[in-house]
C-alpha cells in the first residue's frame, strides 16, 4: 500500500506527460484584468516565407493538446500551423468553466443567464466580457506571439467550440477583418435569446460592401439535439435530492423529459445550420468563403475533436 492508502503504486520515475513541440506561459492582461495561460505548439517544419499560419484556440486547457497533436500530424504532409491555445492558470474543471463564461459571453441580462447545477451561483460580474477578451487576443497576445515566432500576420484563425463558438461568431460579425479564418464549432447560438444573430445584417452589409472577406466555417454534430443515452450524473443527483422518495425509473423519465425540452430550446443543430445557410447567402467579394458541415453520429462532446481536424484542413488545405 502507498502512503495515501491507495492499493495502486506509481511506476518508478513516473513523470507528467508533455505535449510534443509545445510550451506554456502565463500572460497578465491590462485590458481584461485577468491572467491567461498560453499554450504554443511550434511545428518542426521550417516556416513558409510568409510565416506560419496561426490558429488561436479558445478553451486552451482542453482544446490545445488535441489541436497541437493534430498540427504535428499535418506537419508530416509538409504543412502545419502554429497553434496558440488560450486558457487559464488552473487545472480545476469547475473553475475553467466559470472563467470562460466571463470572457466568451456578450453583455447579458441576469434574467437571461441560466444557473448551471454544476457551477457556482450566478454572478453578473462573471459574464459579458467578450469584447475585452477579443481585445486581449488582438492587441496584447497577437503582438507577443509575433515577437516570439515567425508567423503570417495575414493568416490568423480564431477557433471556438460551444460557448466559445458563439463568441467566435460574435467576433466575426463585429470584427470581420480581425482574423482571416473563423471556425465556430457547435456554437451556443441560443445564449441570451440568440442575441448574436442580431449582428448578421450589419455583417452582411460590410461583406457585400467589400470591407472584409473572411473565411468562415460553421460545424456541429448531427446528434446534438438528441437526448443522450446516459444522462449527466449531476442531473440525476440533483433530482435525487429534490425527489428522494420518487422511484429511480420515474426520476430518470422526468430527467429525460427535462433534457429533451432543453435540447429543443437550444436547437444546436438547427441554429448552426441556419447560420451557415445565411452566411452562404451573403454575396461577398473575392476571398469570402462560408461553409457549413454537420458531423454524422457526433454529439456536443464528440464533435469537438472532429471539429479540430476539420479546422486544420480548412486552414492548411483550403
Automatic annotation (TrEMBL):
UniProt feature coiled coil, ranges: none
UniProt key word Hydrolase: yes
Record keyword Disulfide bond present: no
MF terms (GO), sorted A to Z: hydrolase activity, acting on ester bonds
Keywords attached to this entry: Hydrolase
Superkingdom of the source species: Bacteria
Family listed: Belongs to the esterase D family.
Name of the protein this chain belongs to: Esterase
Source organism of the structure: Mucilaginibacter mallensis
Lineage: Bacteria, Pseudomonadati, Bacteroidota, Sphingobacteriia, Sphingobacteriales
Amino acid at each position: 500500500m502507498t502512503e495515501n492508502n491507495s492499493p495502486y503504486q506509481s511506476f518508478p520515475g513516473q513523470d507528467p506527460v508533455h505535449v510534443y513541440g509545445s510550451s506554456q506561459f502565463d500572460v497578465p492582461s491590462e485590458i481584461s484584468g485577468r491572467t491567461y495561460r498560453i499554450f504554443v505548439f511550434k511545428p518542426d517544419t521550417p516556416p513558409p516565407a510568409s510565416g506560419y499560419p496561426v490558429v488561436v484556440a479558445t478553451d486552451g486547457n482542453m482544446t490545445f493538446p488535441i489541436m497541437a497533436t493534430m498540427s504535428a500530424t499535418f506537419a508530416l504532409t509538409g504543412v502545419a500551423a502554429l497553434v496558440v491555445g488560450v486558457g487559464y492558470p488552473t487545472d480545476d474543471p469547475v473553475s475553467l468553466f466559470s472563467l470562460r463564461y466571463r470572457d466568451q459571453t456578450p453583455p447579458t441580462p441576469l434574467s437571461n443567464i441560466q444557473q448551471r447545477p454544476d457551477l457556482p451561483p450566478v454572478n453578473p460580474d462573471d459574464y459579458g466580457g467578450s469584447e475585452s477578451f477579443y481585445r486581449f487576443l488582438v492587441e496584447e497576445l497577437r503582438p507577443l506571439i509575433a515577437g516570439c515566432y515567425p508567423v503570417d500576420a495575414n493568416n490568423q484563425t480564431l477557433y471556438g467550440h460551444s460557448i466559445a463558438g458563439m463568441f467566435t461568431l460574435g467576433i466575426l460579425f463585429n470584427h470581420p477583418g480581425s482574423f482571416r479564418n473563423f471556425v465556430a464549432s457547435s456554437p451556443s447560438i441560443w445564449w441570451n435569446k440568440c442575441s448574436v444573430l442580431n449582428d448578421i445584417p450589419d455583417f452582411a452589409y460590410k461583406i457585400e460592401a467589400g470591407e472584409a472577406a473572411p473565411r468562415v466555417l460553421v460545424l456541429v454534430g448531427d446528434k446534438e439535439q438528441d437526448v443522450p443515452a446516459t444522462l449527466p450524473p449531476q442531473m440525476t443527483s440533483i433530482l435525487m435530492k429534490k425527489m428522494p422518495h420518487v422511484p429511480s425509473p420515474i426520476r430518470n423519465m422526468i430527467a429525460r423529459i427535462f433534457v429533451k425540452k432543453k435540447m429543443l430550446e437550444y436547437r444546436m443543430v438547427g441554429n448552426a445550420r441556419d447560420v451557415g445557410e445565411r452566411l452562404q447567402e451573403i454575396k461577398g467579394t473575392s476571398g469570402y468563403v462560408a461553409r457549413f458541415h454537420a458531423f454524422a453520429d457526433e454529439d456536443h462532446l464528440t464533435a469537438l475533436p472532429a471539429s479540430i481536424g476539420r479546422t486544420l484542413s480548412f486552414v492548411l488545405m483550403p
